[in-house]
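Figure 2 data, in text form.
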Amino acid sequence: MPFLKHHTDQVETPNNGTSSGATPATKDEQGSPAVPAVKQQKVTFLSIFLGVVASIGGFMFGYVSGQISGFFNMPDFAQRFGEQNSNGGYEFGAARQGTIVGLLPVGCLLGALVAGQLADVLGRRLAISVAGLWSCVGIVIEISSQTSWVQFAVGRLVTGCSIGALSVVVPMYQSESSPAIIRGILVSTYQLFITLGIWTSYMVDWGTKDMSTSASWRIPNGLGFLWSLILGLGILVLPESPRHAYRVGREDEARNTIAKLAGVDPQHRSVHDQITEIRVKLDEEKNSGKASWFEIFTGPRMLYRTLLGMVLQAGQQLTGANFFFYYGTTVFKATGLSDSYVTQIVLGTVNVATTIVGLYVVQNVGRRKALIAGAFWMMVCFFIYAFVGHFALDSTNPMNTPAAGSALIVFSCLAIAAFATTWGPLVWAVVAELYPSRYRAPCMALATATNWFWNFMISFFTRFITDAIDYFYGFVFAGCCAALIVIVYFFVIETKDRSLEEIDTMYLLHVNPIKSSRWDGSKVPEGVNAESLHEEHAEV
């Protein structure tokens, strides 16, 4: 059998107790026979610092994504990069606005595809540093643009390569380094920093919007240098991922890193257990030979997991939250609000506040329950958004229907709150936990690239779609949310408080997702032949 728990202190049971069928560890081995070894690990400053510094990659993601919405309403930006209309003013057509917005996720998609290989060659930590500093190149191209909207768009494409690479390597680094007891919340910190980045970009845009010169958009752009330098240099003071360190032969470094991050002695039982799990999985990989790229589809249970990761990442976009972040200023201007920048700040504040609540959800509520509840919540919000926007709002003169405009704002905030507490932080955590070490880098790259593909599709085509069907666009996102409820219920395994190696075993054992929260890690499920399963795993 690839890996099963053999001690009660290694097993997570439905009631957070221990399995009655396993042999308890001795006091010498564990320190306290009544307390599982993993529960003796501590929440250390180093582990929190690691999560926070790495999550600046998420802050950069949010900052770049959020700032562009405000740029389109800045007079100097419109005069330089927009199109002159018949009244002598400047505006952005659907194609030009879609291209400027959409080339960022295109760059992110490209960056995500190469990030897995980069992380394996350079290591997780150095890959984050290189990707973080690369965004400076894109910022220079954007700031130096004078009147060419194409140059500005290309700058966003280059910046996107950095953001896309970070969106793969940061959650990978966090999941591989974090102690199991706080892994979910640390990986989800990435999403919290995305929301902080979005909120910060809204505040900066609001602060510069009345400037009549190019400083109105160049100052928000230029601040991106600061975030890049903090991440690119700050990550170098942190340790390498212990799983990557072990894979390249640095066992002592891996052991010491695990111990420091968990606040225990390098010879502690929980450290021994984790090193053993890593070694067993690595030995299986070595016995299977060098992995080929197509094994992410042909390996044991890998087609299932690869497609599931892609669907979940696509689903994060198809919940519709980024529709508000990319086009919120434009959308709420249509409701008759005098200052749509303020509305964006309100939405951003809701996003940040509820993401903090989302960290509690990640730590205390199962992945499955939260994802299902969040998708249902967003589905209801988008149904109401679509009906009110189409049937109740006077698009020609929104001031005639103030109640409808207020309803759109309220249910937009509720939809963002649902996303921020569930699908925002949880998808990064679930996907980071989904794959075995052998395939983690390419699978996460492919899954995250899928996220960016749908990000681009939404950012580029939204203007065309809303011009054609206006607020009925909400039905598209409502339908996607309904589909995601079904997908999570039948296909996503509950992984809360499990080690990455244990999660891999659950997938290999074909544990029923509906019953996965009650799975006993010390036992092979009924009807499964452990010996044959081991042979299946070794055939890769």
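Caption note: The first strand starts at residue 83 and ends at 84.
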